[in-house]
Amino acid sequence: MLLLENVSKSYVEPDGSPLHILRVPRFEVAASEQMVLVGRSGCGKSTLLHIISGITRADSGSVKVNGLDICRLSEVGRDRFRAKNLGYVFQTFNLLPAFTALENVMLGMTFARGMKDRARAVQLLERVGLAHRQQHKPAAMSVGEQQRVAVARALANRPKLLLADEPTANIDPANQDMIVELIRETCREEEVALVMVTHSKEVADQFERQDRLEEINEVAKAPAS
Amino acid sequence: MNLFTIAWRSVKQRGVASLLTTLSMALGVMLVVTVLAIYGVVAESFRNNSSLGYNMIVGAKGGKLQLTLNTVYYLSQPVENIPYDFYLEFLSADERAAEYTAALAPPADAKDKGRYADYVDFAIPVCLGDYFGRFRVVGTKPEMLELVFDLESKETFEFADGRNFHHHSKEHGYFEAVAGSVVAREMGLKVGDMIAPSHGAADGDVHAQKFCLVGILKNTGTPYDRALFVNMEGFYLMDDHAKPMAEEAEMSSDQSPPGGAQTVDDVAIEDDAPVPAATEEHAPHRPLPVEQREVTALLVRTSNPLVAPGLQNTINEGSQAQAVSPVMEIFKLFEIFVSPIQSVLLAITGLVCLVSGVSILVSIYNSMNDRKHEIAVMRALGASRVTVMTIILLESTLLSLGGGVLGWFIGHGMIALASPAIEDRTGVEMGFFAMAPPINVLELLTESPIINISVSPELLLVPALVLLAILVGIWPAMSAYKTDVARSLGS
Ligand SMILES: Nc1ncnc2c1ncn2[C@@H]1O[C@H](COP(=O)(O)OP(=O)(O)O)[C@@H](O)[C@H]1O
Ligand SMILES: [Mg+2]
């Protein structure tokens, strides 16, 4: 379903020298597969997710989602692709403060230019246990609740792949498991593949497949280079 | 949800800042609307009054504009007078002879028709200089109020109450008056009231001579509403209204001796003393002799518009009087005076709008730092660069147009409130939804446009405000466009 081949990414440092972040010969995720990415801070996990989602363009290589190489798409094409095919959950501040929970869920539908399926948005909020908080704005919700809204939003457009970048890092351990469980369950129900980045060993241990980015990423393997 | 809703939400989210920028824009637009309305009223009242019932004004030599302002609008400082004889030159043989019966010494040609008689339909004399309250007193003939005062719409005077004054009536002699609608309302006049004009200025000496109000005109929306019309014959009989005797004596001495049947009873005028009979209700007044009469102006309609320039030249070449075309003078006044003021006011109010535009820029720009992350989230959800840029532009447009609409309503509300007063003074009706009169848009671009696209300048506010919004919104919008999503997501 997701296949990265020979993806590399580097930034140019202020002094002009190249800063290599990623060199990934191969990274694959099957349909409906759930896996977790671990690795020390700064090893390029977020960058990898940005490349998969098309937010950042790889310098070289291919990123195929269901056979479509998003690296060949224009930026607008990647935006549209992202809206339709990917769900994204970030560490914090997922939600737009000016909108209610329900509106935040529907925001993704707006950008996908598809049908605005209010019933589905309501249903997803019910699924994440926030039926009673539809009309609340983010400021009136706990971080955990906000993350649950973010999960609902990430699934709104029936994506094929959900990217979660440390979704539980700001959540107390008691709620952490609940959120991870919620993400995994809903992904299973919706048949969505899941790539989750986490720092927490507890969280990582719940997944059958755990990839260390240092092992996938040749740059991180040899930090001296 | 659409982009518009998203923009509206972030505007609302910024609460006070948005409100303040909206209010400042509202203030600017309100000023623009008010200036346009004032201009509209002025233009409209000028236009209303340029289709007068006459096409020439004859008066003393001097300022043409002043003569026009005096005669058409009853405004400005009073002007000099011209001799009554000059008026008589516009009359037919019969009329002229009749007038000369009230002369101390009729000239030899008194029975001939006037020099200009052939060229004119009518000439109505008016005597200005007296006031009633703040209003001008217009000494004239009854024909004045039989005038078709607006040739375009063929409007004639109608009486709300009473009748026109008569040349001479049994009850009131020469002392009848008719009030314009505003005069009657403001001074609380009703038919039958006795009125004493004051001399020379609004706070001048009050004449002892009283006129009886016999009629009140319906509102015409013209300066006539602000005038008190009195019988010219009575006007002449008031103190200080006869021509000083020095000239008169000179004139009469080389013509025929004063006295006999031709002399007036109340010759007290001659020694500048008050008319003794004035206090008596119906004193046996006799008309003032022609030699002692003067008129301020003649309202002339030429028998044919084509003869007007020739007649005007002939009169202007003489030494006694000048003739002006009121429509031309009004037009010139408008061009020289009113239009530039309007431009300056519009420029100033336009600047106010521009400043409000800058305040929108500041408001949105200030919010951009906090919103980098929000924009990044939207981008991550699949919004394109153009989409987030559009949202920002929509925000500035909302603030600008929102302020504009608010300002429009406040402006028009104020105009509607001021409307009765405006109507009183100018006769121009201004409803709440009355837009500034249309102008040809292309005239703003070229001197002589080929096609005519006439819209109210108020409608131009809409594209102007959108343009301003884009102008001030483009900077923050570009910053939204350029947001580095990957980096902003992390922060
Ligand atoms: N736009 C950028 N310019 C330069 N360096 C960057 C940029 N974005 C990320 N980096 C660098 O790339 C490395 C990987 O970052 P990131 O993917 O966020 O790491 P992780 O998510 O694994 O902690 C970091 O060292 C970071 O400083
Ligand atoms: Mg990271």
Note down, in words, how this protein is organized.
- The complex is a heterodimer of chains A (225) and B (491).
- Chain A has 225 residues and is an alpha/beta fold.
- Chain A has a single domain, classed as Rossmann fold (3-Layer(aba) Sandwich).
- Chain A has helices at 45-53, 75-85, 101-112, 118-127, 143-155, 173-190, 201-204, 213-216, 218-221, and strands at 2-12, 18-29, 34-38, 60-65, 68-69, 86-89, 161-165, 193-197, 209-212.
- In chain A, strands 6-7-8-3-9 form a five-stranded parallel sheet, with helices on both faces.
- In chain A, helix 3 crosses helix 4, helix 3 packs parallel to helix 5 and helix 5 (143-155) runs parallel beside helix 6 (173-190).
- With 491 residues, chain B is α+β, with helices and mostly antiparallel strands.
- Chain B folds into two domains: 3-46 and 332-490, no CATH class; 56-324, no CATH class.
- In chain B, 47% of the residues lie in helices and 14% in strands.
- Chain B has helices spanning 3-13, 15-50, 64-73, 84-88, 93-100, 181-187, 232-237, 245-253, 307-317, 326-380, 385-426, 457-481, 485-490; strands at residues 56-59, 82-83, 120-132, 135-140, 148-150, 155-156, 159-162, 176-179, 194-195, 211-217, 227-231, 294-295, 297-302, 322-324, 439-440, 454-455.
- In chain B, the strands form four sheets. In chain B, strands 1, 3, 4, 7, 8, 9, 10, 11, 13 and 14 form a ten-stranded mixed sheet that branches. In chain B, strands 2-12 form a two-stranded antiparallel ribbon. Chain B has a two-stranded antiparallel ribbon with strand order 5-6.
- The longest helix of chain B has 55 residues, at 326-380.
- The two termini of chain B are 27 Å apart.
- The site of adenosine-5'-diphosphate (ADP) has 11 residues of chain A, from strand 2 and helix 1.
